[in-house]
Design goal:
The chain has 103 residues and is mainly α. It is 45% helix and 8% strand. The protein has five helices and two strands. A two-stranded parallel ribbon has the order 1-2. The radius of gyration is 14 Å and the shape is globular.
């Protein structure tokens, strides 16, 4: 896959990684937040265990959603501008985290 080639050719720096690693090793669900430019790294390298991800319900996010799903993530989709989709997505994420998924 293209991500394997990409990560074989880049140098990755991890800042304050110990905090993330402690959460990951605790076997308790948690919510990780990061900037868009870190998305490929998180999907490719840091998806041990049960993970879910939130993406927009827009057509533009369809490709990203498919890529993330192929890496084993459960997807939750919702947009704040489309009626009650955003609230429904938040409720689904809360339910999934309470069942042991990290987000």
């Amino acid at each position: 896959m293209l991500t394997r080639l990409l990560f074989a050719t880049v140098r990755v720096r991890k800042y304050n990684y110990v905090n993330f690693k402690q959460l990951q090793d605790s076997d308790k669900p948690f919510i990780a937040t990061f900037w868009h430019y870190c998305m490929l790294y998180m999907i490719y390298h840091e998806h041990q265990g049960k993970w879910l991800a939130l993406t927009s319900a827009s057509r533009d996010a369809e490709y990203a959603t498919r890529v993330i799903q192929k890496q084993g993530f459960v997807m939750v989709r919702g947009s704040r501008g489309k009626g009650k989709q955003g609230l429904a997505a938040l409720k689904k994420m809360i339910a999934m985290v309470s069942r042991g998924f990290s987000a």
